Amino acid sequence: MTDQHKTRILARVDDDLFEDRGREVESIVGIPDAISRQRPCSRLVLGARHIGKTEILRKAFDELFMLQGPALPIYYSISTTRSTPDAIAGDLTREALKQAVAFRTCDYGLVRDSAKSVDAISSQSDRDDLPWVRELLDRVRNPAAFIHNPFSAVSVLAAGTGLVPVVLLDNLQRLVGFETDGHQDERSHRQPDEALFEFIALQNEGRTAFVLTGLERPIGEILPADEDVLSQLESMRVERLPDAAIERVIRTTSGRLDVEISDSTAELMAQQLGGDLFYIRAILDRAAADGTSLRTFVDFEKVYAGEVLKGRIGRHLAGLLRVAAREPGEQRCALEVLRLLSEADGPVPLDTILERASRYLPGPELLIRRLHSMELLNASYGFVAAAHDSVVGDYVRAIYRDEVVGSRPALTGEELLRDKLKGSYRLMMSRFNRSVESQLLEALSHFDFQSVPASLLNQKVFEELYHGSSRMQIRRGLEQEESRARLPQMVLVKDAGAGAERGMTWRFFFSSGFEGGIYSESNEVVWLIALINAREPLDEDSLKRVDSLLDATLRRRRELQSIPVIRWYISKEGFSRTVLDSQLPANGLFSNYLQLDFLHEQIERPLGAEALRSSDFELVIPVENETELIAARTAEQIARAAEFDQESINQIKTALIEACINAAEHGESPDRRIYQRFALTDDRLIITVRNKGKIFGLTDASSTPTTGVASGAARSSRGRGLQIIRALMDEVHFERSDDGVSLVMTKFLKRPENP
Fold this sequence. Notes:
This protein is of the alpha/beta class. Helix content is 47%, strand content 17%. Helix 4 (85-105) packs antiparallel against helix 6.
């Protein structure tokens, strides 16, 4: 039962394609531990459509089921076909009964069996479980049992099994909008969402846990501002996967489907589809079904156009529109609104949208609210904007052109294909620009009074020092550079606009902070930054145009008028010799993308220059779980600054972790501290790990591991740790002092020029 295909019960995605969501899955699987520590045990899983929330719940169900621990997993997706609270309650009870019997009998095949009746399922239960099985059967047969609480079956399971039901409730937004049955007493028949949140509020003794997910906006509308509910419900946001992870999923999935794909097409797919896992799978399935390769952009865009217009993606988006726009008049109005927003440059005032929409539908406010809830547009603070999902915009424009305008169909090809091909190169360039912007923003957010090589902010000096040098030579030179620049501490970074002209794009930022460690108006400083992507080194005329735009940015921000402003120009290919010789404006800083890369590296490796200047430095960590990882990260920074190769860095980290664990477990340290010293010379790194205990893996001054102090198991474990350390490091020995024992480990630096 360890094979990933055998243990997939409800999950639809292979584990290796979902490994980047491991943290979210583990948060749910760890609910029993949270209960034991009296922490909030229920979860509200939030995130955009198609980001993987449903699969997280399904994966968590599978893991909890296979663990057979104190948590009883129940997965239920609220269906659009269940139109009353009683219908939901009956369906949930049937699923809970089936899944609970499957869990108790360790028969995971039963979970997927939709053909068996509840009577047949019940007959498979153990004799000891018959009382709660019969009670659930009675509730399925008697709808009146659910009047007070549609989720009461969960309490029956908790009491009957002695386990903690973890109810994984998907598509929560479908609880919104139920009408009470006119034949029942409305005072006792509450809305399902009210009953659910009341149920959660009462679970303060760890009897039940809920994990809720669905469309984020409607959930936000029904979530009560109730302290009892919020104290039991911990929010967990699911963010978009990094580009590298999405591209890996695309390449792996295409390989399993025998769809040939190039790296550039995988990158384009990740960007154009916004990392949407549903869209990605639909495109790859279509290519596999048609036997089409995705080697080129044209191949991909052909499949994309077909999927959006006539495939699974098109049917999905048509279904979303039908839910939001339920009448024919609403559908025409929705198309008009969405098309207008997709062609707008930015947010449009709500009054303008309502005026346009009222031509097709009286009182369109409710429709706009539904489109917002379905995440087909964004409405807030009196403005309306297109959804972040560009596929929605492509679909709306194509449908509007074909069904509303009634344009003649193309004899061959698709207009959507032509439009997407024109935008594909621009999209790939924007991907590169975003990665550089991300690097810049990360660097700015870590500005914290560091001293960095001054040449990184002066392209002219940088070229004089390092022209023709390799990256390794530049890195070594930067560490030895005497001229330094002191960075401010940045506390705010804001986008200040973007623009483009032929052969050049730019984005402006302003970053505000303080110099000298004194938080006063006299020490406040602003860096106005121009990030420029040009094909050639920027000449004087281009720089003047950029500078005039920066001036306009300053004039619009009156709060900056009395604050010293430093302008930092960062151009992909740098600046022309004329610009560098003039060094105008006088307080301007000039860098290319290579200098930005090295600056980012310097800030991310704060021990770099200082470490190489210093003979040794110390670190003290407490004897607690996982604090050895702090030591490992410190060692990694020092070793990387000294230019150890990655294999040596990994060996150093592993050896240090083993040493810290050894000291923690066997050191008998009275102050519960582990002391470390890192001594760096030209050809070696010496790490000393010391505690103030009586033993540290030896019984005398020799380096022989101890043999008579601890139990056999402890001696065996300690011996293996020391063997690992000796195998990883070049020299290892012990030193005894008056207040304890030290383990000294040495790793020699093998420089490329002196192998």
